[in-house]
Specification:
Helices cover 44% and strands 12% of the residues. With 476 residues, the chain is an alpha/beta fold. A hairpin with a 7-residue loop joins strand 10 and strand 11.
Length: 476
Amino acid sequence: MLPYIKDRVEMEVQKNLEGLKRDLLGTEEERKKFKKFVTLPQSGLTEEEIERELDTYVSMAPHAFEDGKISGAVYNGDKKITQLVNSAMEKFTWSNPLHPKLFPGIRKMEAEIISMVVDMYNGTAIGACGSMTSGGTESILMSVRTHKEWAKAHKGITRPHMIVPVTAHAAFDKGADYFDVRITHIPVDPVTYKVNIKKVKQAICCNTIMIVGSCPNYPHGVQDDIEALSQLAVTHNIGLHVDCCLGGFIVPFMEAAGYPLPLFDFRVPGVTSISADPHKYGCAPKGSSVVLYRTLELRRFQFFCATNWPGGVYASPTMAGSRPGNIIAGCWSSMVKIGREGYINLTKLIVNKTEVMKEAVRSHKELFVFGSTPASVVALGSNVIDPYRVGGLLQTHGWEIGWVQFPNGIHISVTSLIDENAFVTDLSLVMKQIRTEPHAPPTTSAKTYGAATTMPDRSLIDRLSRGFLDTMYTPL
């Protein structure tokens, strides 16, 4: 790169980093309003002082999730559930499942959570099993490690390879990075946005340990053809992971709610593992996820054991050693409180909200909805206007949304808190403004995201992303 061009690029990167910093931390004047705690107080604060500071921290949020304009993030709006979960977590504040004899109730609740989720995914009759993890990413990481170790033991594979749709969660890329697994990304059909099965088949080689399908995926809320992927997995004796993290407590209840889906769970013979998050639509506290396996034998490859450590025999099922038992107690409480009928009713509510919002999108000729899976995601795009401008203007009406790229679009994970009627109204106002000012550029954070998607050098986006993460650890 020529020095002049390199300097211009560097200036642009720094400019964008400053914009990200302002967006996350606020202006200098705004930040001066708050105290900083960067060293331990010389003497501890009083309880009253701490409560005041905590209230200040709560007030820093630009939007209240109860306003009904937040995509995902907070999935429970039932205050009674919140009170119950808080009470359960308080009873087990200091518990740790690393010590099952000391906290037998936590061990029992964790086993029961896994058993209930196995049943949701029709795995009880075949002896399916699983583990709890801290979130969907860890569940996916564990599945990658498990299939890698299984393939090494059973097939002698030492240069593992996995195949994922481009729309699969980025946690699979993280797993490939962490565990040194070569990864192949498969494009999706330009109409259905499901993974291209023919290209998956072509990508399978002697080192392939697993293939992946989503139900639904995050970007567009689309269910891949799990039964077709299963045929490939069975034929080639490789793993098939179905990622249900986003819709983990929606898709198992779709059929009972009146919205049957093509099969995606352990009724499909090639499915070897599934990830599902109670801490989304299960209304459990954050830090609750489950990874399921078809057999006990497969799950054992997830475990880590150190038998010769001077501190004694050390064994742990997932990434962490110590884990917060109170999260398990909160998860168990929410699941047994809501129950099957409650989750069916929540599914009906959320799918109905989603369909209202999708119809609102379709009512504007400039817009389209990605895919057709009737679950809990509204993803809109356009072939005639910049969808990021739509998203930026929705932000000015108080909406917190997600951005998708390649192609550009906006994403909303519909929760029970979402105000679908407000979306219909606000989208109409946004589209009216766009038709009045058809050539105006994107506003708010849409401007930054829009610029990022057009950068051909993705290493610059990598730098911006790492700069953003650095900024997260900056005190105000």
